[in-house]
Amino acid sequence: MSLSPRRLPTVSFALALIAFLLPFVTFSCAGQHVTMNGIQLATGSIPSELASMGMTPKDLASKTGFSGDLLTLCALLAAGIGLALSLVGASARRPTILVAALAAVSLAASRANLLTSAVKEGQGLLTIQFELGFWLAFLAFGAAIATCIMSTWDLAMFRQQPKAQAAQAPLPDRT
Questions:
Q1: Is 175 exposed, middle or buried (0-12, 13-18, 19+ CB in 10 A)?
Q2: Which of 15, 54, 133, 135 meets the CB 3.0–4.6 Å disulfide criterion with 22?
Q3: How many whole angstroms separate alpha carbon 91 and alpha carbon 146?
Q4: Domain boundaries, the chain
Q5: What is the pTM of this model?
Q6: What residues contact 7, with CB distance under 8 A and at least 6 apart?
Q7: Contact in structure between 45 and 39 (CB atoms under 8 Å)
């Protein structure tokens, strides 16, 4: 079974969605480490380490001001929308490129926002490490952009090819 180049954006978006299930970010403070996957980071749900200590999402929001990262949520939603658009086919290729770019920019902005917040509010005690899921999602969005552009370019070349062949065909002799 071979993978068509036209299906590569679909694979990229599916990989990005899977990456949101993997460890995304680790917060460390005073020897305590809390790792969140992308969905937990996006929605503000409680990681198992905090849930075992009896903390609820409301407690987390009231103590830390964290109720989910809107930019990460935007990237997660864009991954789902991009997957749906990539399944539609070639007619939705250009919007798919824009959705992938929005997702990549959202993740980059989320990273910058989290790092700025850690410095500002953590007073040097809070460190953030971005894990495999974050980097895999970011790379998958980049791959989605690249494969959408390549498949759009490939389709444009394919559409022009019959015209070029017709232009090169010899004219019939009318003698």
A1: exposed
A2: 133
A3: 17
A4: 5-158
A5: 0.76
A6: none
A7: yes
CA triple 148-151-153, angle to 5 deg: 105
In this structure, what are the phi and psi dihedrals at residue 36, rounded to the nearest 5 degrees? -125, 145
> Strands (DSSP E) along the chain, which ranges?
23-29, 32-37, 126-130
Strand partners, 126: 29
Name the E strands within 4-147.
Answer: 23-29, 32-37, 126-130
Residue whose structure tokens are 């007073």: 123
Chunked into runs of 10 residues, the chain (175 residues) has average pLDDT values of: 73 96 89 88 76 54 63 95 87 84 95 86 81 96 90 62 56 62
Q: In what order do the strands lie in the sheet with 126-130?
A: 32-37, 23-29, 126-130
Of the options 3.30.300, 1.25.40, 1.20.1070, 1.20.140, the CATH number for the domain spanning 5-158: 1.20.140
8 Å CB contact between 99 and 17: no
Rounded to the nearest angstrom, the gap between the alpha carbon of residue 123 and the centroid of all alpha carbons in its chain is 30
Spell out the residues 6+ positions from residue 60 whose beta carbon is closer than 8 angstroms to its own: 44, 46, 50, 66, 67
With beta carbons less than 8 A apart as the criterion, state whether 125 and 18 touch.
Answer: no
